[in-house]
């Protein structure tokens, strides 16, 4: 099945089973804004809990805060967002549609990659086990031709982006590559211009006295302006970190790919404050730590890769992304950046207040350097759903859709099912449910055949189902079914909590990180 078709099925599945709904749908929706349904909010909360506990429980020198969405507007002047938080946009005159120029070019680079991969896949199918991929890539004429075009475009694009970006050169690349508008199919492009992504509003009781404020485009600045408050009240010693989960807002003109790029989204960020001169060593450590966190979910190492930035932000001296293999290619889910002391120095300059750290070990004050780890909750949600979504053909020829979610993140951990709605089985099932619901999220289901009930639970990713039958009333045992293997076994009711809790708890996931 084509990856595009898989993605369409995933989006449909998210709505059908209560994971993600288009926002304001009864009013025909609001572009690039989504609501999380009853299953989605549970999965999202579990993702946040996994991240939060991996930060503040596993690291004695990391604490959390929750800063306000509204902040003094000068903060965004100091951070550079007022002057430099822009996207290069281009319009197609025929379709009247607006696009990000950099995304159009990146998609063109991806097309060259796709052509190369198709040639490789075709040859692999033709030659079977005798196929030598490395040799084929280095000798096949068509592959070499595509690779040369791809590398030349990539080099030209990187130079244009590093030059400010050079808006005229970006437009020229689009023209030279003969990139067409996906809607009109024409190359009738306008000039490229910059567009600021921050939402603005007014704060104040009267129109004349109102102050222009911004919806924060990132959560990091709330950490920076509070870092000294946290350090002093928490008696923190460098190195230490501050973690935060919160909403951020960007007026994305080209929002697309479902919840991958939205105008209202949620971030999980940790800023780690270090002594100047040690930042690159800590940058390397946090790269490794964060990749290990992702891989612990068990989707396979081949789903992840680093992408080092060729163009560094003006405040950074090192930056990399952790990319995940989405249905539409490898895409960023987390960024790790060495932000130097730019943010703290800027806030000291614009506020006129000293926020230096006094280091008692060397008896000196200095402005700490910062390593940032920043992950989008929504992108993480999408990556997990993409990897978990699976269609299987069973031995009897039936097809089942199953979400193979990591058990610790699954919205519902256990479904409790009486085999029939009589003979005291519902009462026994309720008794078991009322005991287990204090330990993890359970769902009770007595409607339809047991097979249909299993399929419903597979579709929302429930790792375990228990069936209460007539024998249960005699031996106090139930049938425990595993979602992934569909294997069933008889277990004592008294053992259920121990068996299931160990496998579905966040703690079991955190232990793999040690």
TrEMBL record:
One annotated Gene Ontology cellular component of this protein: cytoplasm
Q: What does this protein do?
A: Catalyzes the attachment of glycine to tRNA(Gly).
Q: What class of enzyme is it?
A: ligase
The protein's superkingdom reads Bacteria
- Among its keywords, does the record have Protein biosynthesis? yes
Question: For substrate, which residues are the binding ones?
Answer: 100, 218, 265-269, 372-376
**Entry-linked InterPro entries:** aa-tRNA-synt_IIb, aa-tRNA-synth_II, aa-tRNA-synth_II/BPL/LPL, Anticodon-bd, Anticodon-bd_dom_sf, Gly-tRNA_synthase/POLG2, Gly_tRNA_ligase_bac, GlyRS-like_core
- Protein name (database record): Glycine--tRNA ligase
Name of one Pfam family that matches = HGTP_anticodon
What UniProt keywords apply to this chain's record, in alphabetical order? Aminoacyl-tRNA synthetase, ATP-binding, Cytoplasm, Ligase, Nucleotide-binding, Protein biosynthesis
Which processes are annotated in GO (biological process)? Answer: diadenosine tetraphosphate biosynthetic process; glycyl-tRNA aminoacylation
Q: What is its EC number?
A: 6.1.1.14
Domain Aminoacyl-transfer RNA synthetases class-II family profile residues, every copy: 150-418
Q: Name one GO molecular function term.
A: glycine-tRNA ligase activity
Q: Which reaction does it catalyse?
A: tRNA(Gly) + glycine + ATP = glycyl-tRNA(Gly) + AMP + diphosphate
Stretches assigned to coiled coil: none
Is Nucleotide-binding one of the keywords UniProt gives this record?
yes
Relate the assembly described in the record. Homodimer.
The organism named in the record is Phocaeicola coprophilus DSM 18228 = JCM 13818
Q: Which family does it belong to?
A: Belongs to the class-II aminoacyl-tRNA synthetase family.
